[in-house]
Amino acid sequence: MATASAPVQILAIGRLVAAKRWDVLIRAWTHVAERVAIAGDGELHKQLGVLADSLGVSDRVRFLGHRDDVAELLEGASVLVSTSQSEGFAYSVLEALQAECVVVSTPTGVANQLVPEAFRFPVGDSEQCAGIVNRTLKDLSRARGAFAGAWRAAKELTVARMVRETERIYANALRAAGVEAGSVQRRR
After folding, report:
1. With bands split at pLDDT 50, 70 and 90, how would you rate the model's confidence at 183?
2. Residues 6+ apart with CB under 8 A from 115
3. The domain 10-152 is classified under which CATH number: 2.30.22.10, 3.90.1170.50, 3.40.50.2000, 3.40.190.10?
């Protein structure tokens, strides 16, 4: 999370593939004055660079390439933008929420459950994406206030907790079937 005195950092994370709809983000940036950094690499890298150039936004859309320091990037970011057309879970959104970033996203994966509705836009709609980003940047402290509940919920969604919950469900199922949990042997 960026501090109040630090410049706003806008970040987008993911593989540069068609399903992530990076074209929507780049088109949205024709209406956004701030810079966005895209962390990720993939088959569309060159094509997306050409699109940014042709739309006149290459000075505001920066491609960082593959990064192993995503957690650190999120710690320095204020806003994460996700334009995916579909997500199984959207770990980048979860990680951004856990880092207390404001998230502007399509209603895919975990974003559909955790990101407040006012910060979600329809898949493929670059104008709505830009509008939400601009409103967020205009009053970032108000936007941050809208995310307090989402941040708390995201911090509860850890792998350790998911494993504990899965084990609890299995133990309950075994008990209901009359099998003592400790009596089950692992196959090798």
Report:
1. low
2. 93, 97, 103, 104, 105, 107, 150
3. 3.40.50.2000
